[in-house]
Specification:
Helices cover about 35% and strands about 20% of the residues. The radius of gyration is 19 Å and the shape is globular. The termini are far apart.
């Protein structure tokens, strides 16, 4: 345990000015099941969206709502959010407690179903730690993109492997202490580039592994270790993940994080091809 405390790295707060006023506890949702990266990752995803005050943003797979609250509070946007595992009732209570009931509307929806929004309705999409759960099907992605206005941007990011495995994942990634880590759905940044290009609806502006992608995992472990008082029970429960992160320092594929941004094509602004 002492080796983890001394060798695992914290993220550099200077790299994340968007959350400079947040405590470590707030960045990780006070331990309320926020995925690794927390609001550090949310700020990285949001940077390339060019958000303007009053924009309508769809937060896909919003988790416990912390990303939606962050977007509304920091950028002054209007957010509609939903998550397959968190009810709108729970989200509504949390959003009201944050004083953002007029800015964030939670709904009970499924990203793989038809959504009740007009075409071209949103100025931006945001998805943190959820795209691998529903977005690996290009047809689902195409259907979602219908609700994004031409020129609108879709920012996404989350946990991933640094590259596509050449065969089965290394044995160490088969151990998850019974938790469904969804590793079978994790893909490299280049894989996501190919998927979005396959839709033919967007231009890929960026999609890459974060230089501190592994550090996001380590920072998360340090946060939860400290929150648990570095108890033996916490360490035994988390050892499988700690072993994977140590492995990832020296082997590939490694656990890391990526971010990407795509922009919906605006066909109306393109010069028609001359008739032959």
């Amino acid at each position: 345990m002492e080796q983890v405390r001394s060798s695992f790295r914290r993220l550099d707060p200077d790299d994340y000015p968007e959350v400079s006023d947040y405590s470590w506890d707030e960045i990780y949702g006070r331990g309320d099941n926020m995925a690794p990266g927390g609001l550090y990752l949310a700020s990285r995803i949001a940077r390339s969206l060019n958000l303007q005050r009053g924009d309508r943003v769809l937060d896909l797979a919003c988790g416990k709502g912390d990303s939606s609250i962050f977007l509304a509070k920091h950028f002054g946007v209007s957010v509609i959010c939903f998550d397959a595992w968190t009810s709108a009732s729970y989200l509504s209570r949390k959003i009201e407690a944050a004083g953002l009931g007029d800015a964030v509307l939670p709904l009970d929806l499924d990203a793989t179903d038809l959504l009740p929004f007009p075409d071209d309705y949103f100025q931006a999409f945001f998805c943190m730690q959820g795209l691998h759960s529903f977005g690996t099907d290009p047809d689902v992605t195409r259907r979602l993109l219908a609700h994004l206005q031409p020129g609108g941007r879709f920012g996404f990011g989350g946990t991933c492997f640094s590259q596509e495995p050449d065969g089965p994942l290394p044995a160490i990634f088969q151990e998850t202490a019974g938790w469904d880590a969804e590793y079978h759905n994790y893909h490299s940044p280049s894989w996501w580039v190919d998927l979005f290009e396959e839709t033919r609806l967007v231009d890929v502006l960026n999609c890459e592994e974060l230089p501190d992608g592994l550090v996001m995992w380590e920072d998360d472990v340090l946060y939860h270790g400290e929150r648990a008082g570095w108890s033996n029970a916490w360490f035994e429960k988390s050892k499988w993940l700690i072993d994977q992160l140590v492995f990832s320092r020296h082997h590939r594929p490694s656990l890391t994080h990526y971010v990407g941004t795509v922009e919906k094509k605006d066909w109306s602004s393109r010069t028609p091809r001359p008739s032959p």
